[in-house]
Amino acid sequence: PRFLGKFSRLNNFGSLRDPRYEYETRYFDQILDHFSFSGPERFRQRYLISTEHWTGPDRQGPIFLYCGNEGDIEWFAENTGFVWEIAPRFGAMVVFTEHRYYGKSMPYGGEEEAYKNATTLAHLTSEQALADFAILITDLKKNLSAQSCPVVLFGGSYGGMLAAWMRLKYPHVAIGALASSAPVLQFEDIVPQETFYDIASNDFRRESVSCFDTIKASWDVIETEGQKVNGLSYLTELFRFCKKLESADDLSNWLSSGYSYLAMADYPYATDFLMPMPKNPIKEVCRRIDSYPNGTDILRRIFEGVSVYYNFTGNVDCFKLDDDPHGMNGWNWQACTEMVMPLSSGTKSMFPGYDFDLDSDAYWCFQSFRVTPRPTWITTEFGGHGFKNALRWFGSNIVFSNGLLDPWSGGSVLENVSDTIVALVTEKGAHHLDLRPATVEDPDWLLDQREIEMKLIQGWLDEYY
């Protein structure tokens, strides 16, 4: 999940390197509209599959199915090493399914036509995506004579939400789900709307109060500078944008996104998942901001700090506000229809203060797509204020894993609901850190968390067998 508006796109200037995991790329002839019988329209849905360690149908080898997020599935496969690395231990087949309207799984022949208008985008919904996963895996099992092989779901962030929802909606298709960093409660007023930005702000305050204060003070300076005669030109040059800023808000939104992603990806080792970043990137941001002597121009300090996210390698000559290298543009449509996740910034936050304004967002959505958001649809479809009770009464075999450094953790399930609906919470974990590839720098608490997850998965399989 990301932020509503044109600055929701990820500014990553790198490209996906050669995959570290071996798999075969296949395409499935998928139905475009699962909930209508009026048309024959189909599209090619991409999925990645590995049977290298699968023990086969005769031994009921399990199938590990990753529920694709809002982006290119190869990107998620590359950054979800946990699934690949535990497959040999379980004798599992691995399948990564791409979400419709992302990557190469485009209806209507390609992105340009698929994203053309509200009519062509109408089938970009979470419900259709879940039906895609269910039909694809059912067909795959049939073709491999593997109908009796159990399916375990995995997903992180939005993919984690899909994994949890699929376990609830299709319990006959999958025996369990690991939903990492899945903010399934970040809807309506189930959790305080300030939660996301308060957590992100606390991540910075934890490293340095002066760093937090500098960032908090910078917004007024940016606004004042933007109102000067040549202020936008100055800000454009200082922050090295490729094109002149149209408003100071453009810069503020760009900075806010950078700080938010830094909080999400505050990993204990260097990564290039979102952008190439050092280990503990917030610590490095604050080190740079605080390293300047008193009296140094605040905006120069801010630029030096946020460059840890946007240009840690130093290879970027200028920044573009609308880069989308991972093919995540469809999220704005989803946020304008059903994925309405209210966020506000209050007095405890270092971010610019604002209140969630559904009317304003609805206006933007209508201007952009000619649609009106339905803020209560997700809670109607999957559960809202009574979600935990529904899990207790009707759910089983779901793990909600969260790290408290992750701003999205505040919208997830942080307490055990039942013996089989388990919350794994780590104090120093970031955004779906447990799903990332293992490294020699993994702290002991992360190793322990993954071991617990494997034991829970083994328990589901033992019960099934």
From TrEMBL:
GO terms for molecular function: dipeptidyl-peptidase activity; serine-type exopeptidase activity. Belongs to the peptidase S28 family. GO terms for cellular component: vacuole. This is Uncharacterized protein. It holds the Pfam family Peptidase_S28. InterPro entries: AB_hydrolase_fold (IPR029058), Peptidase_S28 (IPR008758), Ser_carbopepase_S28_SKS (IPR042269). Keywords: Glycoprotein, Hydrolase, Protease, Signal. The lineage of its organism: Eukaryota, Viridiplantae, Streptophyta, Embryophyta, Tracheophyta. One of its GO terms (biological process) is proteolysis.
